[in-house]
Each structure stands twice: as structure tokens, then as C-alpha cells.
Amino acid sequence: MNRLYNYQNVIYRIILLCFCTALTVYIFPNNNRFKYDYNQGEPWDYETLYAPFSFPIEKGENALLNERQSISDNAPRYFKIDQTVEKNVRNNWLNNYSIKSDDIISTEELKRVNSELSKIFSEIYKVGYLELPLDLEENQPVLIEFNNELQSATYNDLYEPEDLGQLLNERVDRLNTSSFKRSELIADLLEVIQPNITYDKGLTDLAINEELNKILTTRGVVSQGVRIIAQGEIVEGEKLQVLNTLNNTYKSQTWTDSQYNWKLGGYIILVGMAYTMLILFLWRYRKSIFENFRKLFFIFFNILVVVVLTATVVNIDVQYIYVVPVCILPLILKAFFDARLGLFTHVIAIFILSFIVPNSDEYLFLQMMAGIVTILSNNEIYKRANLFLTVAQIIGIYFLSYFAFYAINQGGVTGWEWSRLGYFVLCGLAMLFVWPLIYIFEKVFGLVSDVSLLELSDTNSKLLKALSNKAPGTFHHSLNVANIAETVANEIGANAMLVRVGALYHDVGKMSNPTYFTENQGSGINPHNDLDPVDSARIIIDHTLNGIEIARKYNLPDRIIDFIRTHHGDSLVYYFYAQAKEDNPEVAKDNFRYPGPKPFSQETAILMIADSVEAASKSIKNPTSVKIDTLVNKIIDGQVESGQFLNANITFKQIETIKAVIKKKLASIYHLRIEYPE
């Protein structure tokens, strides 16, 4: 039992890992896939493959396309004929054109000419005259509807305008008569001859579609046990087509119990590995989160929510896969923790989702890019404009990535799915649900986000009002420190909202004994004059412990309580230590030292600096730029030398930047101006 108790934290995490893995695999859609991976033109790397069952061989897309094209090209074209056109043409010629002549012509000559012209009409209308040519081969079969019957011919048998002109030129030359002008006769004939055949596109398309529907998609059968491909053989030609057919057929086959168990075991291993990597990342780089089971469960819970939503959509209709707001996961984790953890968790979630979505390569790229954009976007999501801007950027990345993939796969952008773009917009709109989600998670899991920090920064809150009433000087000091710390945080890239709220509440413990702190001694009476330096130091030191108690009473988040605990680190209450040392040179320093801990983040380090400098600046008489610079350098350099920032991830360069910002800020507070002569 003692061992179980000692290892209970490890046991809880193992149970969480197993539970999440089992639930994730359980909700996976039934995705049957071919177990071999192969590429055209490459050797078969696996053992010799035999047909596990009998299956018909698919013809393949190219073969089917060629067969359809052949049927479409060679299918006969249908035409309609107007039988009255030839008769009308002959009558029109005899009544209006045949008697035209510049010279007197004999009756015999006129009969001969009309007879020859009649032969021309008969030859033209033997099959038909088509005024609008079609792009067809000369031997293309055609069917002409005549007296409710179809007559067969070839496209070469039809006369077109080009053929008609050539025919008239040859035949008019054979007339060998001077009674008619050659050019006028040809012009008259071209004017009187009319087309009698029209193309019936509707009937042609109907006939072609009937033939296309008769095409078989398979050819032959592969019997069970027949060798498909041997190890080392090149995957091409007939072998490639049989493998593709088996791949497609395999998806529709019913799995045996043994096959299903092996498949299930593989999924469990892969998903378990993904979750294990996340736990190891937290153990290595986010120790505080790893040791806090509530926060650990919160992270895994969010991954499970995304996986469940995606699996549900895949089961309902896979085309709506991009409506699921997957990028809400890194957005939430960034709001509660940090961007690096949000991105790493997003990558793990995408890897898991790639097992259940089609086109996993496209899905991986789109969601990965969208997740990176989410992480790189503005951290202050409590501002409405920033969240809308982040959503717009994510939608833009979806659009651009989908456009690129479509251009690669299709060799163009014509015919792309506009509905897919609508899904991206719906996904972006769904991400706006992050606001109520953050509020719900804060209440359920007891976490704090920037949205809560914004609420805590309200000076009309119950605790800050009590501070302003009981210790007005401390309240004013906290406001000044908050303004300085926020400016510094913005300058070095720290969490400005967090440090501001921490500064507002860091001295709430002074409410217990407000008159023992100089900023609240308006009457000029100092109660420390009647106390021993050790007792005075104890009262001063206790304001951090009292502050923690008050903060817990008012349910302040732990992230804010950290500022109360660390804003003095383990520094000395030097004023009373110096007094005590005058009376007793051997006095112990530990009686005058704050309990700590030292600042362990950029934000807590910023507060320590801003608090010390602001308080000390009140003691400057007739402040000048030189005095302020000297004071700031002295205080911050002293804190560095005493090792107060050893646990904080803050650099010397940032410390120098902090000095410059605080000097400028204090100069503006004290309205330093040049001195004018009297």
C-alpha cells in the first residue's frame, strides 16, 4: 500500500494514457485499407503475394477513358433530311434562273444546259448537302433519317460548302457554252442551292450514352491462390492493375476476427505512442503541468473532444471533415498555457486524426499550417478584434492551401469545389465558440486565462475596493506598479495582462496592518518607532503570507498568488536589519529575510523590479534624471547580484531594456523638466 501511495501519481498518468488510447481507437471509423504500400515503377519489397480471394480485374481509369473515347469517336452521327428542299431548289432554278442569258440561246442548247444542271442537283442531293461542317473524319459513319428509316453513309458522302464550290467549278467548265457567263452561273447556282441535311445532336448524344453505359468496368477474374506478384518484381503494367484492383476490393471485404485483432493492436500501438510523446514532452519541458493532474487531464480531454468530433463527422459524411474547428485546440491551450505546448499538442492531435481521414497528406498539411498560424497570431484573444483576425488568417491559409493542392492534383483550377470553401468559412465561424468554451473550462477545471485576467484587472472588484478603502496608499502604489510593469512586459514580449493583474494584487496582504507601511501613514505617526526591529521586520514580512491567505479567501487563481509569494523573493528587509545590527552586530539575517520563493518567470521578475523601484522612488527628494538613473541601476543591479533572478527565464539584455523603460516611465511620472533661471 505504501508503494502504491508513493507511485500513485505515475499510476494515475498511466491510467489516463490507457483510457485515452482505448477511447480514441474505439471511436475510429471502420477504415479498411490495403496492408501493403507500393508505387508504380518500383520493386515489390514484400513477400510474394497470392490472391487471398477471387476478384474481377478492374480495367483502370486510363483503359476505361480510352474505351469511352473510342466509342465516342467512332459512334455514328445522326442527321435529319428535308425531302422538299431538292424539289424546291429545282423549281426555283427553272422559274427564276435558267432563262437568264446575255446572248440569244437556242432551244437545244438551253435543254442541254438545264439537263447538265439537273444532274448536278441530283449528285448534290443524292446523299445531302450540309451547310455547317462538323469536325469529323471522312470515313465517320453517319445515319440519315429518310421516310422514318435510317440510311447508312459516311461523312465523306455529304457535301459541304467547300465541296460544293469545287463541284460547281468543275461542272460549269464542262458545259462548254458561251451563252452564260461562268462566274454569274456559279453565283446563281450557289444562291439557289440550299442545305437539306441538319445534324441531330440530341439523338447522337443519346445513342453514344447508351453505348457508354454498356461498357464493363472489369475484365477477367483472378482466382484465389493465384500468384499476383513476386518479391523484387517491378510494379507496372498488368501487375499494377491487379494490385490496384485488390487494393480497392480489399476495402470492401469483411475482416476475420484474427485480422481485426491485429489491426486493432496496430492502432493501439500508434495512438499510444502519440499520447506517450505528449506526456514525455510535458514531463521534460512543462514539469509543473505534468505534476498537476488536473491540467494534464484538461489537455487530454481537449484532444479527445477534437478526435470525437472528427470521427463523428467522418461517419456521417466525410465531405464535411473541414467544418470541424480543429485549430480551436491550440487556441485554447495557448490561452491557458503557452504557444509551444499548444503547437505540440496540435501536432499530436493531427497525427492521430490522419488515421481516420481521407487524403491524409492534404489534411495533414492544411491543418498543420492552420495550427501554426493560430500559434503565431496575437496572444491577446480576449480582444475581439484579435480573435476575428486570427480566424480570418486561418480561413485564408485553408483557401490558399486547398488552391495549391487542387492545382497540383488537377493541373489547373477549373472545376474546383466551391462548396469546400464554404466549409472553411464555417470552420472559422465555429472557432468563435472559443470564448464560451474558455469560460466553461475555467469553471470546470479551475484554470485561468487572459479573459479571466481581464475581469480581475477591474479596479471595481470586491477585493481591490477593500484594498483602496483600508490601505489607499498601498492601492495607489499598486496602480503605479501595474502601469510600470505592464509597460515593461510589452517591451520585452512578456504577458502584459498577467503581470498587470499580479501587480494590482501583490500587496493585498498589507490590508491586515495598513498603518505599518509608510504609504498609508498619512498622520505622520510611525508605529514602528515603538517596536523592536525584529518585530517590525516580522510585520513587514508577514504581508506576503497574509496576502496569500486573503487571495485564497477571495478565490484568486494560483497564477496571481504566485506574484504575491515571489514579489520580494528571499531578499532582506534591509532597513530594520540595519537598525538591529547597530544594537547587535551578530544578529541573524534569516530573521529579516522574506520566505520566498524567488521569481520563476519573466512576469514575476518584472513585478519584483517594478515594485522595488517604484517604492524606492518615493524617497527621492527633488527627483532628477540623474537621481532616477542612479536609483534604478542600484536597485536592479543589487537584485541581480543577490541572485533573485536565477530561476526566472530573463536575460541580461532584457534587464537592460527593463532599466531603460523604467527610467523613462519614472521620468514621465515625476514630470522632470529643465530648470529655468529665476
Describe the overall structure.
The chain has 678 residues and is mostly helical. The protein folds into 3 domains: 209 residues, no CATH class; 145 residues, no CATH class; 220 residues, Hypothetical protein af1432 (Orthogonal Bundle), CATH 1.10.3210. Helices cover 61% and strands 5% of the residues. It has a 4-stranded mixed sheet. Strands 1-8 form a two-stranded antiparallel ribbon. It has a two-stranded antiparallel sheet with strand order 2-7. Strand 4 and strand 5 form a beta hairpin. About 1% of the residues have low confidence.
SSE blueprint:
Elements: H1 2-6, H2 8-26, E1 49-50, E2 55-58, H3 61-74, E3 77-81, H4 84-96, H5 107-124, E4 141-146, E5 149-154, H6 161-175, H7 182-192, E6 197-199, H8 201-213, E7 218-222, E8 227-229, H9 237-252, H10 257-285, H11 287-291, H12 293-316, H13 328-336, H14 339-353, H15 360-376, H16 384-410, H17 418-431, H18 434-445, H19 450-456, H20 462-470, H21 472-492, H22 496-505, H23 533-553, H24 558-566, H25 574-583, H26 602-617, H27 625-641, H28 652-669
Parallel strand pairs: 3-4
Antiparallel strand pairs: 1-8, 2-7, 3-6, 4-5
Helix pairs in contact: 2-10, 2-12, 4-5, 5-6, 6-7, 10-14, 12-14, 13-14, 14-15, 15-16, 16-17, 20-21, 21-22, 21-26, 21-28, 22-24, 22-26, 23-24, 23-25, 26-27, 27-28
